[in-house]
Amino acid sequence: MSTAAIILAAGKGARMKTATPKVLHKVCNLPMLTYVLEACREAGCDRLICVIGFGAEEIRAAYADQKDIVWVLQEQQLGTGHAVQVSLPALADLEGEMLVLAGDGPLVRPETLSQMLSVHRRRHSACTLATSILSEPEAYGRIIRDETGELEGIVEYLDATAEQARIKEVNVSLYCFDTALLRQVVGQLRNDNAKGEYYLTDTLGMLRGRGHTITAVPAVPPEDVLSINDRVQLAQVSRLMQQRIQARLMLEGVTIENSASTWIDPRARIGADTVIRPMTVIDGLCRIGRRCTIGPMVVLKDAQVADGQSVEASRG
Fold first, then answer.
1. From 68, 82, 99, 226, which residue has the greatest number of CB atoms within 10 Å?
2. Is the pTM of this model over 0.70?
3. Catalytic machinery residues
């Protein structure tokens, strides 16, 4: 059996006020969709089904060299459940596990997906979702559990009662389904709700009603929840991603003297015991060796720096 993923990337992103498809907007130099694709690959997905709509040809062109992606066109955006419905032909020969997640959530970590998959397998669930506990849950769908703590379902915020709206555990749109069972129920979704959309979350109650196990695991840290709907959130996510990039490098043995004034491309590779001094930009496919000193006030673009070298700002 295999693990596949459906990535929902059909939205126009009207609040971005742009002619560019939302998922191609860049976070630290890479399209936000790239982070989602890579997280799925690192979690073990061997087939990626990407549902596209607005700007479909532009998105296809951006990933033309990536042969593990199956493209599905969603001409009308009628909800998450509808996106999976139009993907059914691409699921026909698949068994095993199916992740479903959003293409505008680049903060998703492969570790989170792997944890969700592990719980899904251990509990032999029909559906497992990764949730988050937020102090201010706002408009997220609320996780409904029964008296034993087992997942009962999800209520969308607009459909929630006052009591349900006070729940802090929320759905952040990270799912793992048994693919065969998903095929059985997704075609039966109805759109009699406040938005008139087909909610993928409604499949949970359908599966539970048939006696299957559904599971929720609070695996998503609050700082990883933010997705991108406008340019303000794009900037917020870019800052969080830059912090993540720098934290990874520091844990690998790189000294960054002033994180706030430093910017590093996620594709850069920097050796241990290298020092990055303030006001430094490391852009593109830089390869910097061990025991180097870079900066202050240096901009590198696709540079190669050998072990032990120093790169300082030119003085003239």
1. 99
2. yes
3. 15
